[in-house]
Amino acid sequence: MFTAARGCAVLRHMDRTNGLADEPPAAYPTVPYRPPAVPAGEAEARARAFHDVMARRRTVRDFSERPLPDGVVEWAIRTAATAPSGANVQPWRFVVLTDPERRARLREAAEAEEREFYGRRASAEWLRALAPLGTDWRKPFLETAPAVIVVFEVHKGPGSPRPYYTKESVGIAVGLLLATLHQAGLATLTHTPSPMRFLNEVCDRPPEERAAYVIPVGYPAGDARVPDIRRKDPEQVMVRL
Questions:
Q1: pTM value?
Q2: Cβ distance 198 to 109 under 8 Å?
Q3: Closest Cα to residue 97, out of 49, 33, 37, 144?
Q4: Helices 166-183 and 40-54, interaxial angle, to 10°?
Q5: Contact 149, 178 (CB under 8 A)
Q6: Is 151 in contact with 93 (CB distance < 8 Å)?
Q7: Pick from 163, 156, 151, 166: nearest CA to 199
């Protein structure tokens, strides 16, 4: 039935499509939502147990040569891909690099950009903020980690629709990815060289895909060390109204 309300909706859609009288897409069918049944008395304990594991997560730069268990990266990516996304476009691509030659190319290209960053592009304020962490242009972890996941944002292209809230959607997915890998006993690092266009060539990706994160994955080296830092207390990050 064509009601007045539906007529207005079609006109608004025509405005958005430059006058093309396309029918709005049909609504998705619905299914019952059945979240995990957690007794109220256990909810806080479960949340705290998850926190206690995640509080031990750290960014690691020294990886061992120990191989990864079969399937763990795939399941982590499957979990990441459950993230919410703008208009359910799911605008992400996860490229897993395990080939040593490919990872060597990645390191060479990334270090070239990082030399420029530390030598010319970064402001003095930015370099002062990084100094306590002991980072520099050298990125050996791109070769020593047994796997590197390069995460791309997928923008409008020949085979992909226009995404919405792309950075937010991909950022949530990466959070789930890091949490899953940590829960599996693996270490990670979030590396964001700038600019990142070289990653399309290294990873054989089309121009509508834009690199957002480079994440080495593996077991920490036996002598791995991390900066002794503290996270902010809840009172500094949470506001109750």
A1: 0.89
A2: yes
A3: 144
A4: 90
A5: no
A6: yes
A7: 151
